[in-house]
Amino acid sequence: MAIASLEAGMGASEAWGGQAAAYGSNLTVVDKVTPDMMHLIDPHWYQFPPMNPMWHGLLGFTIGVLGFISITGNGMVVYIFTSTKSLKTPSNLLVVNLAFSDFLMMVCMAPPMLVSCYYETWVFGPLACELYACAGSLFGSISIWTMTMIAFDRYNVIVKGIAAKPLTINGALLRILGIWLFSLAWTIAPMLGWNRYVPEGNMTACGTDYLSKSWLSRSYILVYSIFVYYTPLLLIIYSYFFIVQAVAAHEKAMREQAKKMNVASLRSSEAANTSAECKLAKVALMTISLWFMAWTPYLVINYTGVFETAPISPLATIWGSVFAKANAVYNPIVYGISHPKYRAALYQKFPSLACQPSAEETGSVASGATTACEEKPSA
């Protein structure tokens, strides 16, 4: 019995020793990297010990959940918007492009990251690493510029009103083509020598090289952030500033007119249409806000690396991946909650998801008009 106890104690000691060695000072987060990837690893990462496997497990689980929700949700958005006659409008083509971009992002990025989290390092080689990072950059750029076009469309309808030139199918398709070509040009640049795509600190995903000391490489991140982060942000703020201003002026005029006529409200069909546009503007603004919440962590990580303002740990790079991937989940949820015609079409095509849509929403679909009451708070 004493011998058995001694053997058990020795076994436990060996197990503990192996675990301690894994997180000791002799090993680094780079040790599991495959030989063909070593030339892409920045010396900065050699100072960090291996990450706790728990973080890889949590990251893999989170990405798996986000991937399932995003692929299912965005797939349903694309299907419903393209198969429902009342939703086939030029403006909704932009919504479909947004959902399609988010759908492709998770189809391309979730499976490789899941496998890499299992092996605790990137296992698909340098070319796949480049393509993975390129896909993330491409679809992220497409998303933000599509949302910018949605903001411009809302500005056109709400601020300019009847004086505005309506968006046509060809106009929407031309904008979508321009977005794809513009985004593709920016995301191919690192593959042609302006910066490069490398494994991130957690070694399970790939992105831009923000640790390079070359100012040619750093300049890409700075210029890219101007055209794919700050410019869209300023254009969206511009659009929504005037949208909110126009809505406030309209509501003020309605209240004053109602007061003069001694009535509670002047809600005509024209006012209801304006209210619907305002509701859609709120939905778009919510989606855009969530996008910036999702991509700002990546921007902060990249800028921290470029300007060397603080040390970046492998664990910190996980949050950039999680927040960015979560962006692809927001849009179907936002539209499913806030778009009555989409929700009613969803109930019709997938009855098992129905939660007793109101008569108001059903009537909205039947009449072909989007029901959105400004007095009611957004869900």
General description of the model:
There is one protein chain. This protein has helices at residues 2-22, 53-83, 90-119, 125-160, 169-188, 215-260, 269-307, 314-338, 340-349, 359-367, and strands at 197-199, 206-208. The radius of gyration is 25 Å and the shape is elongated. With 379 residues, the protein is mainly alpha-helical. The longest helix has 46 residues, at 215-260. A two-stranded antiparallel ribbon has the order 1-2. Helix 6 (215-260) packs antiparallel against helix 7 (269-307), helix 7 runs antiparallel to helix 8 and helix 9 (340-349) packs across helix 10 (359-367). It is 70% helix and 2% strand. The chain has a single domain (27-259, 269-348), classed as Rhopdopsin 7-helix transmembrane proteins (Up-down Bundle), CATH 1.20.1070.10. The chain crosses the membrane at residues 58-81, 93-115, 130-152, 172-194, 221-249. GO terms for molecular function: G protein-coupled receptor activity; photoreceptor activity.
Keywords:
disordered C terminus; mainly alpha; 10 helices; transducer; Rhopdopsin 7-helix transmembrane proteins; G-protein coupled receptor; Opsin; photoreceptor protein; 70% helix
Helix percentage range:
over 70%
The spatial strand order of the largest sheet comes to 1-2
Uncertain segments: 1-24, 356-379
Number of helices: 10
How much is the radius of gyration in Å?
A: 25 Å
Brief account:
This protein has 379 residues and is mainly alpha-helical.
Topology:
Elements: H1 2-22, H2 53-83, H3 90-119, H4 125-160, H5 169-188, E1 197-199, E2 206-208, H6 215-260, H7 269-307, H8 314-338, H9 340-349, H10 359-367
Antiparallel strand pairs: 1-2
